[in-house]
Amino acid sequence: MDELAVHRYAPGPRARLGSGPPRSWSVLGEPSTAAERMHRARVSGAAPAVAVVLGEHYGRHADRALLQGLALRRTHGWPLVLVHRGAGGGSLLRAVALEEPGPPLATVELTCAGAEATVAEVARAALGDTRWPDPPGSRRDVLAGADGRTAFAHWRPSALPRGATAEGPVLITGGLGGLGLRIAAVLAAAGADDITLLDVTPPGALPRADAAVLGRLRARVPGLRVLTADVTDRAAVARTLAGARPVTVVHCAGRVAGAPVSDCAPGDLAALRGPKATGLSHVLAAVRHSSLRALLCFGSVTSHRAHRMMGGYGLANEILRRRALAVAPRLPGCAVVVAEWSLWSGAGQAHRMGVVAGAARQGMAPIPLRTGLDAVTRLLAWPRGPEHAAALLLTPVAYGALPTAVVDEGDTAGHSGRRANL
Ligand SMILES: NC(=O)c1ccc[n+]([C@@H]2O[C@H](COP(=O)([O-])OP(=O)(O)OC[C@H]3O[C@@H](n4cnc5c(N)ncnc54)[C@H](OP(=O)(O)O)[C@@H]3O)[C@@H](O)[C@H]2O)c1
């Protein structure tokens, strides 16, 4: 496991932002107290800016509002701030910052009740603070709490557990995919004899190498179930998984497609998000929770580190992470962990698409298949209970720069001579 670096995403210490100029806000998104505050903070005649205000849940309305806001930024050159209460969307903005450098982009996440009181000041500061190093794709993500307290999220080194994994039925969504099949094989080799693979792809449509893995798996696990359903179809999932009592769920269903954000329609973003976030909700709605002891979701580093053409995929993974962590309190006896992997070599989407070598040349070393699979078995021993629910960033040690870990910029505040204690 030495080759993998494990980091946990967590709020950092308090940050002090500078102040930003008044703005003539164009407010898009959901009606809410925060949206009302942004409207009220509008100063006519001041420099224009867009505020996209979302609530706790990300859905199609959010796709529409974000893309509409980004179109205004593109057409008029206006800065854009995303304000939300847990819905997310910052990953899309980071990809835009790479693809369309220009006016500032920022995200303000309101982390508790009362944070609305200073939302307009925080939003202004997030857009207006020109002291921040701002290379393309870097983040301006601010966590805003009560009384104007602000923080940046940052990365803390973490480790994979060494405990025993729970025994019992295993359900793998996207189970006929490159990684799903290999995970099943590893769990079977470790003694799992009740494995269900759920996938939208019927087994007969598998490429030859994957069909061979499935054949060997069937030979080793006589009771292997291969179910065909689209996880975005709630009724189909409920029908297909009726009565299922998995102890372990590994949620691997997902699609990858690349396009510049400027070419994306709301439906394109929703299509990438569906198998991951909506699929997770449907699967959890279909299975019995009482037996569930481990939920491992396959996310991606792209939800934090932007890549050109991968904004929609990064967003899908961000919303998956948020959805999984939000559901943890409803799964009290279960370990919930979202593994945000960099790309894998040896099997899976990146391997199949032939992008591993190119990525490695750009400093993004891949996770070798064996290393990743060893990590999966250890992640399945993650401690149970909502208080331990976590998102982990898993990259090879040799991986290029992590998303900037901004720890505390308090010392640099006041550089402009106008120190605001937000
Ligand atoms: N491979 C990597 O380098 C890497 C890195 C980071 C994260 N991940 C994530 O890890 C997971 C597994 O990746 P992988 O490389 O094994 O990808 P994969 O080979 O494409 O497997 C994903 C499987 O999910 C299936 N699927 C897609 N939409 C579905 C739906 N609506 N309902 C049910 N099944 C659906 C796919 O079917 P179709 O083929 O028919 O679409 C495919 O069989 C994915 O979520 C991926 O985003 C992968």
From TrEMBL:
InterPro entries given in the database record: KR_dom (IPR057326), NAD(P)-bd_dom_sf (IPR036291), PKS_KR (IPR013968), PKS_NRPS_Biosynth_Enz (IPR050091)
Protein name: Ketone reductase
Keyword line: Phosphopantetheine, Phosphoprotein
GO molecular function: fatty acid synthase activity
Domain Ketoreductase: 168-347
Organism phylogeny: Bacteria, Bacillati, Actinomycetota, Actinomycetes, Kitasatosporales
GO biological process: fatty acid biosynthetic process
Pfam families assigned: KR
